[in-house]
Structures are given as C-alpha cells and as structure tokens.
Amino acid sequence: MLLLYPPMQTAAGQVCKPNASLAYPNLAGALRDHGVDVRIYDACVGDADDPIVDSMFDKPMPLPSGYVRMGVDDERILNVVADYDIVGITSIFTDQETMVLHCARLIRAAFPDKILVSGGVNARSRLPRFFAAGFDAVCLSEAEGTIVEIVNEVRRSARPDFSSIHGIAYVDAGGTTRIRPTRSQDVVWDLDKLPMPAWDLLANERYWKIARPHAGVFEPGVELRYAQMMTSLGCPFHCSYCHIAGEQEGSLSGPIGKFRIKSDDRVLDEIAMLKDLGVDNVFIEDDSLLGDKKRGLRLLRKIQGAGLNICDVNGINIIHLLKRWKADHEILEALAGAGFTQINLPFETGNLRIMRKYASNKLNIEKADIESLIVAMKEYGFKIYGNYMLGYPDETLEEIETTIEAAKKHMSYGLDAAGFFIVVPLPGSPLYDAAVAGGHFSEDFDPDRMNIYKANMVNTLVPAEVLEEIRSRAWHEVNNPEFKNEKKKLLAPTD
C-alpha cells in the first residue's frame, strides 16, 4: 500500500508548507504491524530520487486557478504509484481537496484496477465528489483498524466487497454509494492499543532541511529536526467551527470527538522513538493537551529532562492556563520544565457573545486576567502567539474591531505576535451546516477558497471584501516589523 501526500497548492503571497500530518505515520504503523508492505510518499517534497530545490519551492507550477503547485509532477507520481495495489490519499483540509481529487483522477486513468482509498473529515463530508473522482472507499473515522480490514478484503478477492466493514463508505458493484457508519465499539478508547506511529517512513531529512513546520516561528534557512505527535485525541469542548463538534455519538465518524488519552508511559515511549530518529523539536498536536488538567500536569512533570524543545501550536486552551482567572504558575512552570518554548494562545474573539455562541463558552473573557497570564508566560521564557478569528455570519463590524483592539492590548502586555484568521465553515463542522442553511454559501462552493485568509461566506453582516481588507490591515497594524519581515521571507514565489 502507498500512502500519498499530494502536491501542495498555495496562493501567491502565502507560505507553502509540507502537509506531513500524523494520519500517515499512524496508518503506516497499523499496516506494518499487519505485515503490509507500506510506503509513505510526499509528492510535495519527494524523496531521495527527487531534486529538493529547483522543481519544488523555487520554481512552483502555475495552476489555472491562479494558485501555484509545489512538488513533483504527475509523471513522477504515476511512477511511484505503479508498484502498489492500494493507494491511500488523505483529505483532512478542504483547501487541498483540488489536489487530492486531481491525484485520484490521474491514478484512476492510468491504473484502472488499483484500489483508491481516502479518509479525513473533508473526504467524509464530500463523498459524492470523492467517488466521482475515482475513489473506491472512504474511511469515515479514525482508520487504523479500518485500513487493515480493507487490506484483508483486497487480499481475499480481486473484486473486493467492503459491505462487512464498519466506518466506511464505498461504491458497490452496481454503482450505488453505501455508507456503514462507525459504531461506538469501533472507536479505540484505550489509545495505548494503537500501533506506534511509523515516523521513520516520512521524508524527515527533507522536512528538516526545508524547515517549514505548519506553525511556529523559526530562523529561515536553518535545519529544524522536528516531528509531530499527539498525547490525546478529542476535546472536552465542541466549538461550532471545529469538526470535533460533529464527531459525536450517532455521527458517521462515531464519538471520536470524546477526549481520550495515552498513558504517561506510552507518551514517553513515543518521545524516545522520536529522539532515536534524531528529532529534537516536537510539535504537540493534541486538540486539548490539558483537557484533563491533573493528567496534563503529571505528564508534563514526567517529560522533564527529555531534552526536547516542544511547541504547542494547536491545543492549549487559555482556560487551562488560569487558576481563579489569573495565571496558573504551577502549570506554566511545568510547561517550561518540560521544554515548551512556543505556545499559541487561541483567544478566538474579544466578544463574550461570540465566545458563548460559537466557541463553547470556554473562556469568560470579562473575568480572565489575560495581562497576568501573558506577563507570567514571558517571565517563564515562552514565545507566545495569539490567534484571533474574524467574520462570523452575524458578527458586527463593531465586534470585529473589539477583537482587534483586544489583540492590541495583548501585544502591549508582551504577546510576541498576533494571527488574524477569517472564519472558515469547514465541511463536517456545525458551522458549515448553519452556513448552508443560512444562505452564506451553496454546497457547490469552491474548495480552493476555503482557507483562513479568504472570506468564505456571502451575506454576512460584514461583506466579504471588507473582511479581507480588515484582516490584512489588522495583521499589519498589530504585529511588529521584525515579525512581519520574518514571515515575508517564507512567502510563496509568484513567478
């Protein structure tokens, strides 16, 4: 089986970063344990047989959409695919759907007998498009077990029948789409039972040389020996813009949104494996690292002494860094002792109404002493970056400006930089369903536009073109020149 990351497409003026999500190391670990010959090929960066500079990041390929394509060409993809029986192509992020479907059509036309499998929240939410592009099956949930069942069925028959597999959608012999939802008993509740991720199958040396992880701030041109890991899955919060809010009991994915943890020993074993590969920078990708705060504190203390630089760019909720609404020094000290260096703070909004309606009411911003938190985090030596979301369907111009003013205050307290993102109602999230129902876009929307720098909806209180101008203005006004200059060095080429 081949697990294929497609080439990346990037708008001119945005930073191109390899995908390298954890989906493939996790799946590859399960397949390898099952005796499957599995390879991961990242068509964005290639492997040792591909050039790493001229054809990739310095000379992107223009696309008809106006985007640019980073990675190997179609001929190279077909050359790699030729030796494999099953090809898996994940589709987690909607704005990369175009390249996923392009690869599927390309492979289907050249190799009509190969089995094509996809998965990820975007694929699950866009089944008709994926089957029209040539996919045979789409995994609807966490797929370490499902992918092994698919392999067993392909081994059994030249004309596989997926009807007995749960957590899958497929096209039957008559051309009808069949859906077998994930059951609660299909969900892995004890995460220690998951196979160890096959990080060694990734193009690590290339990632380290390119040094463009999906977040964080690092010196351009300097090798960064990094990897990603998760110590938990799910989240105690169910924010309307997040796929987790749709991953509950009775959904196609099953209740995988429920917060679940790996044991301390399992996490330490994974860290040891990464260190053996030469990794010295780890990105924690948990959706809520401190979702169980006592467990989080215990784990952080056990990680101390591991000798790693750790960044959390995804899942430390601000409420978990507070105690009685002020900085929780016990947690901050444990984070610093464990090696955390950069932390993203998801402020989301400067408006309590928006927080309550769209973000699980997870932080009372009128009570929280954010100044004490930021000051304390800087005293512990963290680089801290704030994330702010603008442009909910019913958000007023005044509320948007309130969020921007909040970011300015946070910068005055010591925040290192602020990121402003336009709300994206991604397929699979409750916000997507509400946006369709509210006439904010149609179901045949352009997936290429579904990214955090574009106004993705129409008929919002603040018009799309105004939102994009406000977001750009806020980023330039709030951030300091040094940070902006560092970001500009990574922009995608325009010719």
Question: Can you give a write-up of this model?
Answer:
It is a single chain. By secondary structure, the protein is of the alpha/beta class. It folds into 2 domains: about 1-180, Rossmann fold (3-Layer(aba) Sandwich); about 200-490, pyruvate-formate lyase- activating enzyme. It is built from 16 helices and 20 strands. The protein has a 7-stranded mixed β-sheet with strand order 3-1-6-7-8-9-10, with helices on both faces. A 6-stranded parallel β-sheet has the order 11-14-15-18-19-20. A hairpin with a 2-residue loop joins strand 16 and strand 17 (about 325). The radius of gyration is 22 Å and the shape is globular. The mean pLDDT is about 95.
Give me the secondary-structure topology:
Elements: E1 2-5, E2 8-10, H1 23-33, E3 39-42, E4 61-62, E5 68-70, H2 74-81, E6 86-90, H3 97-110, E7 115-119, H4 121-125, H5 127-132, E8 137-139, H6 144-156, E9 168-171, E10 177-180, H7 204-210, E11 226-229, E12 232-233, E13 260-261, H8 264-276, E14 281-284, H9 293-303, E15 309-312, E16 322-323, E17 326-327, H10 329-338, E18 340-348, H11 352-358, H12 370-379, E19 383-390, H13 397-413, E20 417-422, H14 430-437, H15 464-478, H16 481-488
**Widest sheet: strand ordering:** 3-1-6-7-8-9-10
What would the CATH topology of the largest domain be? pyruvate-formate lyase- activating enzyme
Give the tally of structural domains.
Answer: 2
Supply Rg: 22 Å
State the fourth-level CATH superfamily of the largest domain.
Answer: tm_1862 like domain
